Structure formats: C-alpha cells, structure tokens
User: Fold this.
Amino acid sequence: MRRSALLTLAGCLVVSAMVCEVRAQSPDKVQLQLKWVTQAQFAGYYAAKAKGLYAAEKLDVTIRPGGPDIVPEQVVAGGGAQFGIDWLPSLLSARDQSVPLVNIAQVFAHSGMREIAFKSSGIKGPADLRGRRVAVWFGGNEFELLATLEKYKIDRNKDVTLVQQPFDMNLLLQKKVDAAAAMTYNEYKLVLDAGVKPDDLVVIDFNKEGTAMLEDGIFVKADWLKDAKNKQIAARFLRASLKGWEFCRDKGAECVEIVLKESPVLGREHQTWMMTEITKLIWGPPAPPSPVGKMDAEAFKRTADIAVKFGVIKKPAEPGSYTHEIWELAQKK
Assistant:
C-alpha cells in the first residue's frame, strides 16, 4: 500500500475516533411531563434545566407543561415522555388498569391538600363536618377527605352533603358551602388574597389526621426501566432534579425568577408564596420520614390502603408500584 493511502486510512481512523467520541459525549434526550401548568410547584425541574444541572449529567431535558386535558400517565405510557409527575393515587389507578408504570422517586413527603372553613361557621375540626355542605374536587382529589370522614364515622352519603368544587374558592368565599378544599400553595392563598385573615379560618390538615395521600412523585414505564442504559439515564435525571430542588430550597427567590421566565401568568407574589409552601412539602417541617426523593414505605401503604378502600383501585397495590433502585443509583456519584 502506498504511503499516501496509509496516511489517508490513518486520517479516517482518527476522524472516526473523534466522531465516536463526540457521539459518546452527546446528551441523552428525554422529556418530562408535568402534572399541571408551569408554576413553582415544579420549580426544581426548571431550576435543574436553567442552572445546567441536567446538562452536567449529559441530559437534554424537555419539560412539557400539563393542563386539565393532559394525563401524565397516558403521555408516559404512550411514549410521549420518559418521565412523568403526578399524585400517587393516579399512578396506582393506571397500574390497576394494567398500565406498566413505576414510581422511581417520591419528591413530596407531605400532602398539600387541606379542607378549610370559616371559624364563624362553628366548625372546629373534622368531626364538625357532620351535617354540613362540604366542597371538594372530584375526579381523584376527594379521597383524603373521604378517608377523614370515615375516620370520624361520618357517612359520606347520609351525614354530609358533598359539593363538586370548581377550581376557585368562590363557593367558600360566598358562604355557599361550609368548607372547601384548598392546596396550601395555591387556593389557600387565593382566600387570603380575597381579604380573609388566617385567624378567621379553620384548617383541617390531612397529614395530621393520618389520612393524607402522597402527591408529586416521578414515574416511568416499567419496561423502559429494564434497560440498563435507561436505569442510568433515570438515575442521572433524578440526581440532577434533586439538586434542582436543593437549589430552590436554598435560593427560592432565584427559582421564582426562573419559573417566571417560563410563564409569568401567576405573577411574582403568588409564585413566591407557592415556592415557600412547596419547599415545606418536600423538606418539612416536620422532617420527612425518608431522605428526599426516597419513597417512605409507611406513607406508600397509607396511600395505597385509602386508594383500595375507596375504589381508586380494585385490588391492593403491588410492592412493585415503586422502586428504590433509581434513588440508590442516584446517590452513588
């Protein structure tokens, strides 16, 4: 072989090696489907993207906002996203219908859902809901309330009038109901913004009642996770996401600005309130029973038991509904 040919061959080998190296370093593209619209409820993921935490893990992450017509479980199951965010009962319901999904991280350690009432109504606690008009969101959001009613031996069909609650607080503010559902990071603030003072309200906390259900966990398709490469992708995604939440815990104001750049709809004041309340749901107080992101077995069982009791699922949830494997892998770097 002539010397020029050898040089050409050597050059091709060098170029091929460079191409292989570039390909090896190219980020893995994944998508995250949120439960709801862009807001501080999901600030940790937006922060992980904006601060280069995903990029540092060689990930190119597209964050897809949710909405009233988007079901994250359906999106992930259909291949529209590798990762999804939703409440645990929704995941259990999907699995109960043979949709192969699995929770890989439980970000919220506490429920943000409350039932609130005016003190002037005479309601002091859950036992006083008997004989009252009580508003709640249906479609999967009512089960914490139903479990609480049962705890106090209040028959939901005879002893209380349950009212379908729209996504505002007007029924309560206009005193058309005696109590209404509210998320600590959203609707509760709307009531305060309407001129109501915190001291004028009674807040029923389902966490304290032992009837809370887990919210905002990260899930994937179980068969996708069987691939060793995808397990590493999931671990890298989780590691960066948890760092994003740590950033928001320490620099909440900066996280709010990151969210506002994505969507200014709710405004700085509301997003700041939400950021503070979301941080409490993740980090406490009270301190979460497990490290952030790791599913607590007792909290899972409580959620699963309530789900089967009230027909969210027809059969008891399987242990394989969640895994610690990805969380453990994410701790190793």
